[in-house]
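Example record used in the benchmark description.
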Amino acid sequence: MSTPTIALIASGTNGAGAVASRITAMASGLSHRGWHVNIHDVALTRPSLVQRLLDQTPASPRTLLERCGIEGDVMPSIGWRARTRLDTIAADAAIVSGPPFSLLAAGALAVPANLSWIVDYRDPCSARAHPPPLARILRRAERWAATRATAVTFAGGPRLADLLVTRLHITRDKIVAVPNGHDPHDLAGLPTHRLRADRNGCPLDLVFGGYWYGRNGPGILVDALARVGPAIASLTVIGAVTPAVQARIHRAVGDTCRIVPSMPRPQLYQRLAHADAMIIPLDLSSAVESRIPAKVYDGLATGTPIIALCPADAALLTVPGGNRIHHVDYRDTQKLASLFTSAAADRSVLRSGPLGAGPTRDAGIKGLDSLLRSVCTHPADQPVFLADGAHRGQR
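Model output (structure tokens):
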């Protein structure tokens, strides 16, 4: 009997963001468990028509459209490209990972009827407490696609499983958690994080790694930075920022915020190890009740102090080791400014942790391996893994 093959079909696997990290970890973990893995990237060679139109739209209406979920969460061009690729691939099983959620439709329409396929939710679409308008409009289509899947996996907190049941009508026995985590080999040669008492009285070195767009922006962070000034704190964004968000940052803090390209995980970890703290801003529109951004695991793994701007019931605060996260309500600019001021004067205000703390990806890969073995009842040339990370950056 031939070795089962997993074809990881994705957009953005050649990048350095959290999506590429998740897909690469899945490929590596499954390979070690006896699967033959191929990665196929369906990235667009140029921006889609919708994205080009958005780029030409004035800032205010563009921001409104992005907040509604236009393009970033949907991206029909990616779905169409994935569908044409699926038409040519024989497989044992298909795993369709979103966003964008046009990939769910691609899987439902193009995967052969006799082929098992799995929907993988890195982030939810309409299955959230406060979905954006476009997600609410598309809920029936998402439900139609997701309920046709053999199984559903998810990367967030347990509340997402509940929402998948209530919002999309997926039976609970079809839902399997495949959580994120850090990859221990990314920590090779990394120094243990230490609080720099010798820098007391100097500006805080704050880092955010990810992608700010539409409703997923910096929140109160830039207002707090503007309030305390560059003598107290400076910010480095490692990733991408849409023009509208970049304009807001520039108006608030000028050039004291540096924006640099995404970088490979080991390099990102080196940067975090030398930062005073990492920042994770989330608000009610970011699926905080179920979403656990991969950057949480980065901070736990490197031992870097984490400042989370989010509601008190956010899922990210429940991860193992999350008790050392500094929580600030996402509306409390004054509390955040006060924390910056206190920590700049005395670094011991911050809480660092041991190197290698927090969950690894191993538990999630074990669950995915078991699921694939249960649905792949016959060998074929290429089980398929669909995913996408285009324009998403780090999460």
